[in-house]
């Protein structure tokens, strides 16, 4: 049975543990707490399995020298968060039956003796995370049965050459390591199923397409600040076609603000494109139909259909965050839209001739039909979002926020000569929409260019409209927002001048009105931070309750 979610389980902190106990027991007697604490300390000194010495744990302890341990029969050894004052490591230990070894958070560990792993040939899992190691010992290559290697938060580690000899390795974690270059020999790790090297800040990581193309069993991939993950042919990208989990950032823009959320998000397939010019790679073409969370900070594109030279409807996309796309004119083009310069895409993976025609039309299937969260900010050439018919088909939309797009005039232009199918032309129903926000859109004139559009948002609780001085009408009817709890604005005078087909609508909103003081100066200073915050809010609120489509 295929699992749709990957749930990370962590140990409760001491404070959280006692709080949980209090909530269940109703209180804690101080004497009992002391006794219980001592019991816990005794238990964590040494945990014995049915056969003595098979499982040895010496965690959060301090020794003058390497502890005396009987390791001949030991299968599990943990020295997590342990400190050894003098001569921390013997040159070699004999542990032929050892399966799991953890030095996670081993204090002051900066060097491992060259032959240390020589007598651990059956080891399956090794954890060196949160240490100060600068290099890996030659004896690491002796671990011919190793399946999982964790070296997260090893900031000083810059060379992992011995890893290439671990031909049975399946899982490799290098999050927050100092790796700048993956050796091409890593392509020999043909058993590798999961490769992870997320990082908060540069230096950027270089990984050769030849490495990825040879990892034909790869199913999970997480990496950001990737500098040159480009592919010369469709054959090089073939491993990505069966990728089930990925969290990838392509480009050099600093998105460290999102790094924590990128790692924590439960979404299985995330793509961050922070590129300065349009360069449509085979990789992007393969990943887009699979992507669930897409973040765009892409200087070269005029609309998102230019991301793929084949028709794509983003079938799995749940969250779309678009920010600081300097040339973006529209997300999805209208019927009569023609790019400013089609020639600029020649040679970048976008076909001439037929491609320019394709950019003017929607894909045949509904686009964004699984989208739940849409956030757009600081796209200064953006004229409109997408045609009204696209907006009408966003039946799963839950939250939408648009901010600081100074050229935006119409949100959803109406292609009047296009067939609307089973959707009423002047109505848009979004049964799950909870929040809708517009902020700092000085040229915004209309939702659809038509005064007749009426929305049906039966679940909406919050609407926020601020600094949209040219917006004269809202697409609200008397029954559009029956559960609305708050209507936030920044200008009472603007609200008073709004045009209404039925004054009862104004009267309803008046009772829910909340006027926020928000100066133009504050808007300018906080626009980037506010946009980032809204994107983070979209990430944190979006979930994967419904099943993902297989691609």
TrEMBL record:
Disease resistance R13L4/SHOC-2-like LRR domain mapped to chain residues: 110-249
UniProt cross-references to InterPro entries, sorted A to Z: At4g27190-like_LRR (IPR057135), Leu-rich_rpt (IPR001611), Leu-rich_rpt_typical-subtyp (IPR003591), LRR_dom_sf (IPR032675), LRR_R13L4/SHOC2-like (IPR055414), Plant_NBS-LRR (IPR050905)
Biased composition (Basic and acidic residues): 531-543
Acidic residues compositional bias, start-end: 520-530
Signal peptide stretch: none
Disease resistance protein At4g27190-like leucine-rich repeats domain segment(s): 365-474
Alphabetical keyword list: Leucine-rich repeat, Repeat
Stretches for region Disordered: 520-551
Protein name: Uncharacterized protein
Organism this protein belongs to: Coptis chinensis
Record lineage: Eukaryota, Viridiplantae, Streptophyta, Embryophyta, Tracheophyta
């Amino acid at each position: 049975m295929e699992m749709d979610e990957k749930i990370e389980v962590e140990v409760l902190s001491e404070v959280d543990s006692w709080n949980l106990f209090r909530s269940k027991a109703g209180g804690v007697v101080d004497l009992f707490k002391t006794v219980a604490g001592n019991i816990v300390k005794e238990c964590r000194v040494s945990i014995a399995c049915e056969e003595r010495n098979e499982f040895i744990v010496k965690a959060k302890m301090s020794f003058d020298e390497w502890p005396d341990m009987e390791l001949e029969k030991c299968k599990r050894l943990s020295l997590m968060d342990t400190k050894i004052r003098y001569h921390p490591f013997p040159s070699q230990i004999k542990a032929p039956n050892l399966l799991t070894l953890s030095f996670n958070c081993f204090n002051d560990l900066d060097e491992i003796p060259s032959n240390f792993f020589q007598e651990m040939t059956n080891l399956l899992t090794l954890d060196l995370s949160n240490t100060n190691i600068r290099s890996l010992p030659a004896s690491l290559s002796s671990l011919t049965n190793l399946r999982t290697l964790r070296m997260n938060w090893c900031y000083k580690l810059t060379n992992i050459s011995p890893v290439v000899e671990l031909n049975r390795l399946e899982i490799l974690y290098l999050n927050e390591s100092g790796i700048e270059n993956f050796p091409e020999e890593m392509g020999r790790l043909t058993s590798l199923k999961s490769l992870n090297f997320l990082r908060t800040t540069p230096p950027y990581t270089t990984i050769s397409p030849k490495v990825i193309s040879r990892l034909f069993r790869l199913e999970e991939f997480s990496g950001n600040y990737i500098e040159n993950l480009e592919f010369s042919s469709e054959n090089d990208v073939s491993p990505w076609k069966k990728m089930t989990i990925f969290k990838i950032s392509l480009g050099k823009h600093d998105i460290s603000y999102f790094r924590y959320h990128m790692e924590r998000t439960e979404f299985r397939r995330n793509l961050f494109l922070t590129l300065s010019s349009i360069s449509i790679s085979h990789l992007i073409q393969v990943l887009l139909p699979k992507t669930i969370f897409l973040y765009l900070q892409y200087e070269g594109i005029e609309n998102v259909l230019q991301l793929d030279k084949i028709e794509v409807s983003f079938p799995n996309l749940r969250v779309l965050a678009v920010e600081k796309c300097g040339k973006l004119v529209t997300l999805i083009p209208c019927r009569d839209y023609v790019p400013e310069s089609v020639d600029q895409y020649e040679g970048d993976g976008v076909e001439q001739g037929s491609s320019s025609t394709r950019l003017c039309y929607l894909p045949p299937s509904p686009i964004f039909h699984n989208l739940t969260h849409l956030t757009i900010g600081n796209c200064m050439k953006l004229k409109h979002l997408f045609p009204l018919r696209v907006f009408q088909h966003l039946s799963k939309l839950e939250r939408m926020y648009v901010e600081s797009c100074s050229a935006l005039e119409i949100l959803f232009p109406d292609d009047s000569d296009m067939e609307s199918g089973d959707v009423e032309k002047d109505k848009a129903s979004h049964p799950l929409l909870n929040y809708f926000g517009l902020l700092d859109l000085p040229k915004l004139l209309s939702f659809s260019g038509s005064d007749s559009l009426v929305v049906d948002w039966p679940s909406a609780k919050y609407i926020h409209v601020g600094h949209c001085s040219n917006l004269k009408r809202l697409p609200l009817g008397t029954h559009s927002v029956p559960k609305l709890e708050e209507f936030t604005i920044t200008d009472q005078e603007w609200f008073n001048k709004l045009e209404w087909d039925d004054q009862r609508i104004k009267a309803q909103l008046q009772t829910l009105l909340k006027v926020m003081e928000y100066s133009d100066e504050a808007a300018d200073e906080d626009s980037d931070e506010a946009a980032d915050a809204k994107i983070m809010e979209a990430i944190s609120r979006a979930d994967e309750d419904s099943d993902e489509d297989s691609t």
